[in-house]
Amino acid sequence: MERNPVYPRRRSLRINDYDYHQAGGYFVTVCTYRRENFFGQIRDGRMRLNQYGEIAYKCFQAIPQHFDNAAVDEFVVMPNHVHGVIVLSDVGARHAVPVTRSKRFGHSAAGSLATIVRSFKSIVSKRINDLRKTPGGPVWQRNYYEHVIRDEDSLRRIRKYIVNNPARWNFDRENPDATNAEPEDVWRG
Protein backbone atom coordinates (compact mmCIF):
# COMPACT_ATOMS: atom_id res chain seq x y z
CA MET A 1 0.00 0.00 0.00
CA GLU A 2 1.36 3.38 -0.96
CA ARG A 3 1.72 6.00 1.79
CA ASN A 4 -0.22 9.23 1.43
CA PRO A 5 2.30 12.15 1.53
CA VAL A 6 -0.37 14.47 2.97
CA TYR A 7 -0.38 12.42 6.18
CA PRO A 8 3.15 11.89 7.41
CA ARG A 9 3.94 8.54 8.97
CA ARG A 10 3.76 8.71 12.75
CA ARG A 11 6.93 7.60 14.46
CA SER A 12 6.42 5.05 17.21
CA LEU A 13 7.75 6.07 20.60
CA ARG A 14 8.03 2.46 21.76
CA ILE A 15 11.16 0.31 21.96
CA ASN A 16 11.23 -2.10 19.01
CA ASP A 17 10.54 -5.72 19.98
CA TYR A 18 9.95 -4.84 23.65
CA ASP A 19 7.00 -6.63 25.27
CA TYR A 20 5.04 -3.92 27.12
CA HIS A 21 2.94 -6.66 28.68
CA GLN A 22 5.82 -8.00 30.77
CA ALA A 23 6.25 -7.36 34.47
CA GLY A 24 8.14 -4.21 35.40
CA GLY A 25 7.87 -0.53 36.19
CA TYR A 26 7.02 2.12 33.62
CA PHE A 27 7.21 5.91 33.94
CA VAL A 28 4.38 7.35 31.87
CA THR A 29 3.60 10.91 30.78
CA VAL A 30 0.29 11.74 29.10
CA CYS A 31 -0.27 15.29 27.80
CA THR A 32 -3.52 17.13 27.21
CA TYR A 33 -4.65 18.19 23.77
CA ARG A 34 -2.57 21.17 22.62
CA ARG A 35 -1.09 21.16 26.14
CA GLU A 36 -4.10 23.08 27.38
CA ASN A 37 -4.34 23.53 31.15
CA PHE A 38 -7.42 21.35 31.66
CA PHE A 39 -6.67 20.04 35.15
CA GLY A 40 -6.12 23.08 37.36
CA GLN A 41 -3.22 25.33 38.21
CA ILE A 42 -0.08 25.55 40.27
CA ARG A 43 -0.21 27.92 43.24
CA ASP A 44 2.61 28.31 45.74
CA GLY A 45 4.36 25.27 44.26
CA ARG A 46 1.34 22.98 44.75
CA MET A 47 -1.09 21.59 42.23
CA ARG A 48 -4.68 22.76 42.75
CA LEU A 49 -6.95 20.37 40.87
CA ASN A 50 -10.17 21.57 39.28
CA GLN A 51 -13.08 19.18 38.61
CA TYR A 52 -11.37 17.80 35.49
CA GLY A 53 -8.13 17.31 37.41
CA GLU A 54 -10.04 15.42 40.09
CA ILE A 55 -11.40 13.11 37.38
CA ALA A 56 -7.89 12.45 36.02
CA TYR A 57 -6.55 11.88 39.55
CA LYS A 58 -9.29 9.43 40.55
CA CYS A 59 -9.09 7.52 37.28
CA PHE A 60 -5.30 7.12 37.49
CA GLN A 61 -5.59 6.01 41.10
CA ALA A 62 -8.27 3.46 40.07
CA ILE A 63 -6.15 1.71 37.42
CA PRO A 64 -5.50 -1.33 39.69
CA GLN A 65 -9.25 -1.80 40.15
CA HIS A 66 -9.60 -2.42 36.42
CA PHE A 67 -6.35 -4.26 35.67
CA ASP A 68 -5.38 -7.00 38.10
CA ASN A 69 -1.81 -7.00 36.79
CA ALA A 70 -1.27 -3.26 37.41
CA ALA A 71 -0.30 -1.22 40.45
CA VAL A 72 0.06 2.55 40.65
CA ASP A 73 3.14 3.92 42.36
CA GLU A 74 3.91 7.65 42.55
CA PHE A 75 1.91 9.96 40.27
CA VAL A 76 0.90 13.58 39.87
CA VAL A 77 -1.73 15.39 37.83
CA MET A 78 -0.29 18.64 36.51
CA PRO A 79 -2.18 21.46 34.72
CA ASN A 80 -1.66 19.92 31.28
CA HIS A 81 -0.21 16.46 31.80
CA VAL A 82 -0.06 13.44 34.09
CA HIS A 83 3.16 11.78 35.24
CA GLY A 84 2.92 8.38 36.84
CA VAL A 85 4.61 5.10 37.56
CA ILE A 86 2.65 2.00 36.61
CA VAL A 87 3.99 -1.35 37.79
CA LEU A 88 2.91 -4.43 35.88
CA SER A 89 3.09 -7.87 37.44
CA ASP A 90 2.41 -11.37 36.19
CA VAL A 91 -0.59 -11.63 38.55
CA GLY A 92 -3.25 -11.08 35.91
CA ALA A 93 -1.38 -12.65 33.03
CA ARG A 94 -3.27 -15.93 33.18
CA HIS A 95 -6.58 -14.03 32.80
CA ALA A 96 -5.44 -11.87 29.93
CA VAL A 97 -5.97 -12.53 26.27
CA PRO A 98 -2.88 -14.33 24.92
CA VAL A 99 -0.28 -11.95 23.55
CA THR A 100 -0.14 -12.14 19.80
CA ARG A 101 2.75 -10.53 18.02
CA SER A 102 1.65 -8.08 15.40
CA LYS A 103 3.42 -5.35 13.50
CA ARG A 104 0.17 -3.42 13.05
CA PHE A 105 0.32 0.06 14.51
CA GLY A 106 -1.90 0.47 17.55
CA HIS A 107 -2.28 -3.25 18.29
CA SER A 108 -1.98 -4.05 21.98
CA ALA A 109 -2.73 -7.00 24.22
CA ALA A 110 -5.05 -7.07 27.20
CA GLY A 111 -3.18 -5.95 30.32
CA SER A 112 -0.37 -4.31 28.34
CA LEU A 113 0.86 -0.84 29.19
CA ALA A 114 -0.71 0.51 25.98
CA THR A 115 -4.11 -0.95 26.87
CA ILE A 116 -3.94 0.49 30.39
CA VAL A 117 -2.96 3.98 29.20
CA ARG A 118 -5.56 3.91 26.42
CA SER A 119 -8.26 2.90 28.92
CA PHE A 120 -7.21 5.66 31.33
CA LYS A 121 -7.30 8.29 28.58
CA SER A 122 -10.64 7.01 27.32
CA ILE A 123 -12.50 7.11 30.65
CA VAL A 124 -11.06 10.51 31.57
CA SER A 125 -12.11 11.87 28.16
CA LYS A 126 -15.60 10.45 28.47
CA ARG A 127 -16.16 11.86 31.97
CA ILE A 128 -14.76 15.28 31.13
CA ASN A 129 -16.74 15.48 27.91
CA ASP A 130 -19.91 14.45 29.76
CA LEU A 131 -19.35 17.39 32.14
CA ARG A 132 -18.51 19.81 29.33
CA LYS A 133 -21.33 18.48 27.17
CA THR A 134 -18.84 18.01 24.34
CA PRO A 135 -19.16 14.36 23.30
CA GLY A 136 -16.05 13.21 21.49
CA GLY A 137 -14.16 16.43 22.20
CA PRO A 138 -10.37 16.11 22.41
CA VAL A 139 -8.84 15.93 25.87
CA TRP A 140 -5.49 14.21 25.19
CA GLN A 141 -2.72 14.39 22.65
CA ARG A 142 -2.18 11.28 20.60
CA ASN A 143 0.09 8.68 22.11
CA TYR A 144 2.00 9.00 25.39
CA TYR A 145 5.58 8.95 26.58
CA GLU A 146 6.92 5.99 28.54
CA HIS A 147 10.23 4.98 30.04
CA VAL A 148 11.04 1.44 31.17
CA ILE A 149 12.31 1.65 34.75
CA ARG A 150 15.37 -0.58 34.91
CA ASP A 151 16.55 -0.36 38.52
CA GLU A 152 15.84 1.00 42.01
CA ASP A 153 18.05 4.06 41.53
CA SER A 154 16.07 5.06 38.44
CA LEU A 155 12.80 4.50 40.30
CA ARG A 156 14.01 6.69 43.17
CA ARG A 157 14.95 9.55 40.78
CA ILE A 158 11.62 9.28 38.95
CA ARG A 159 9.62 9.32 42.18
CA LYS A 160 11.52 12.41 43.32
CA TYR A 161 10.90 14.10 39.96
CA ILE A 162 7.17 13.36 40.17
CA VAL A 163 6.84 14.62 43.75
CA ASN A 164 8.80 17.81 42.98
CA ASN A 165 7.12 18.47 39.62
CA PRO A 166 4.54 21.00 40.90
CA ALA A 167 7.21 23.04 42.70
CA ARG A 168 9.28 23.12 39.49
CA TRP A 169 6.39 24.09 37.18
CA ASN A 170 8.13 27.27 36.03
CA PHE A 171 10.93 25.09 34.61
CA ASP A 172 8.76 22.23 33.29
CA ARG A 173 9.10 21.51 29.54
CA GLU A 174 5.36 20.79 29.43
CA ASN A 175 4.56 24.29 30.74
CA PRO A 176 3.92 26.59 27.77
CA ASP A 177 4.81 29.58 30.00
CA ALA A 178 8.02 28.09 31.46
CA THR A 179 10.57 30.79 32.20
CA ASN A 180 13.60 28.53 31.69
CA ALA A 181 12.64 25.00 30.64
CA GLU A 182 14.84 22.20 31.90
CA PRO A 183 16.39 19.76 29.48
CA GLU A 184 14.36 16.72 28.52
CA ASP A 185 14.55 13.75 30.91
CA VAL A 186 16.02 15.77 33.81
CA TRP A 187 14.88 12.95 36.11
CA ARG A 188 17.52 10.63 34.64
CA GLY A 189 20.11 12.24 36.90
Main beta sheet: 4 strands, antiparallel
Count of helix runs: 4
Structural class: alpha+beta
Unreliable spans are 92-106
Morphology: globular
Q: What top-tier CATH class fits best?
A: Alpha Beta
CATH homologous superfamily - what is it? Transposase IS200-like
- State the helical fraction: 25-40%
Mean pLDDT: 83
* Portion in strands: 15-25%
Number of strands: 6
Structural notes for this entry:
By secondary structure, this protein is α+β, with helices and mostly antiparallel strands. It has a single domain (24-97, 107-182), classed as 2-Layer Sandwich (Alpha-Beta Plaits). Helices cover 25% and strands 20% of the residues. The chain has a 4-stranded antiparallel β-sheet, with helices on both faces. A hairpin with a 3-residue loop joins strand 4 and strand 5 (81-88). The longest helix is centred in the middle third of the chain and has 20 residues, at 113-132. It is globular, with a radius of gyration of 17 Å. The relative contact order is 0.20.
